[in-house]
Design a protein that fits this description.
The chain contains 14 helices and 21 strands. It is α+β, with helices and mostly antiparallel strands. The protein is globular and about 75 Å long.
Length: 461
């Protein structure tokens, strides 16, 4: 299909969204006042007037980085009032970092939007990211890796799950900014220009300048990259289902028949599984992964360590477990919650402070928890379980006045809540990886992810 045929006008993009959307739907539109988000809001409003199954809300995040931002939020509120759309505004309060301001602002924006989505019980959050934004993202990621068929070429996903609870959808990823602005002009609707979009201190602005005059991103090439990444992730999910087991949330075993199966899917599965077991937000880097794969394919029993995970190759398979060092104690006050070691989210509803740290292994206990596993591996697995010091009963493994959390699913007792964390996916889960993350969640006993509220076009039916 010709590239031009894959580019959608604002009206076509919104119609595509509404066609694929599960109803009833409550949509929260993130609106800054710029052309992209304004075009999204107005086009959504126009198309929703005759669709009783769709309710629209709008939210503006004031990052408090420019003097004009508060007035811009008020201007968006006035536009929403004219359109009859409920509008909520949130301000990014507190000190701003001296470096990494773009990433920090993005994190704050998604956090605040998620809070608003909870407040209005939104089916999904919608943002105005465009094909131009996608071109910049692909260019930035391509510059950081020379690997063939690198995952970064898939760019931003059209849908992303935030905090495992609210889907964010980008309807305009196949729409050009110039087309949005022309459409707004035809509607007699203006927009706000953000001067930071011209500030060359930001990498995205510099990349935007380089892309000017080179033509827009080829949608066909990008969509093929999306299909490749989605297919690889789905194959890794099947590989895990067929060949991997996880015991008590900490010890994974790859069966011997899986050691030589599906090289690409095995490689991807091990990379992501290591991130989950190691409590890391990113899969193994290319160099570490190459070293692990070479070790596994050598067939020689032994151990290798990468990404805080020990890969232990035995005659009965490959064992993966978090290495038992660098697990710092965590103090959690009453009424607070926090994440320990990137692997467990722990909430303290008890009346006193709790302290979370690693478990001191006991051989008899380890062999009871992990029967049919070599004792050395069982001891290593127990030693990376969370041990909670608290003066309350907890129906796990009580020892020495504390709690050794022998669990692989969400557990609550005595005012203490413990839930496994999928570090690579808990904050942002792109739809590319939905099947893979869901399979790992099943293996760990985590809560299931909310269903994608639109048809998943990245997967062929």
């Amino acid at each position: 299909m010709a590239a031009a045929a894959l580019i959608l006008s604002p009206d076509d993009a919104v119609q595509r969204l509404y066609r694929d959307l599960v109803r009833p739907a409550r949509l929260l539109v993130a609106v800054s006042g710029g052309s992209d988000s304004t075009g999204l809001l107005v086009s959504l409003s126009k198309a929703a007037r005759e669709d009783a199954g769709i309710s629209l809300f709008a939210a503006t995040v004031d990052h408090a980085l420019r003097p004009e931002s508060a007035d811009e939020a008020k201007a968006v509120a006035a536009l929403c009032a004219d359109l009859g759309i409920p509008h909520l505004s949130r301000r990014w309060e507190g000190a701003k970092p001296a470096t990494g301001i773009s990433a920090a602002a993005r994190e704050a924006r998604y956090r605040l939007l998620t809070e608003v989505a909870d407040e209005v019980n939104a089916t999904a959050i919608l943002t105005g990211h465009t094909l131009d934004d996608q071109a910049e993202t692909v260019a930035m990621r391509a510059s950081r890796s020379e690997a063939e068929h690198r995952p970064g070429l898939a760019g931003m996903a059209e849908a992303v799950l935030l905090d495992r609870r609210r889907w964010l959808i980008r309807p305009f990823l196949r729409t050009r900014r110039a087309d949005i602005r022309a459409w707004l002009a035809s509607q007699g609707q203006g927009w706000i220009e953000d001067p930071s979009n011209l500030d060359s201190h930001y990498e995205r602005v510099r990349v935007r300048g380089k892309l000017t005059g080179q033509g827009s991103l080829d949608p066909g090439q990008w969509l093929r990259a999306v299909e490749r990444r989605t297919s690889l992730s789905d194959a890794a999910a099947i590989f895990l289902r067929d060949h991997v087991t996880i015991r008590h949330g900490v010890l994974a075993r790859l069966a011997t028949e899986g050691l030589k199966a599906g090289a690409a899917s095995r490689r991807h599965a091990l990379s992501v599984l290591a991130a989950v077991l190691g409590g890391r937000t990113h899969a193994l880097g290319a160099d570490s992964l190459e070293r692990v794969i070479a070790f596994v394919e050598s067939g020689q029993p032994g151990r290798a360590t990468a990404g805080r995970v020990i890969f232990d190759l035995r005659r009965d398979g490959l064992y993966l477990v978090r290495e038992n060092r660098g697990m710092l104690p965590l103090h959690i006050a009453p009424g607070e919650s926090d994440t320990w070691d990137g692997r467990y989210r722990i909430g303290n509803r008890s009346p006193g402070e709790i302290i979370v740290g690693p478990t001191a292994p006991d051989r008899e206990e380890a062999c009871a928890l992990f029967p049919d596993v070599p004792p050395a591996i069982a001891m290593r697995a127990v030693s990376v379980m969370p041990h909670i010091e608290a003066g309350v009963p907890f129906p796990l493994v009580e020892r020495n006045g504390g709690i050794a959390a022998s669990l692989s699913e969400k557990t609550s007792a005595g005012g203490i809540d413990v839930e496994p964390v999928l570090a690579p996916f808990d904050r942002f889960l792109p739809q590319f990886d939905l099947n893979l993350a869901s399979e790992i969640a099943v293996l760990l006993g985590c809560d299931v992810f909310p269903l994608l509220p639109v048809k998943d076009s990245a997967r062929k039916s």
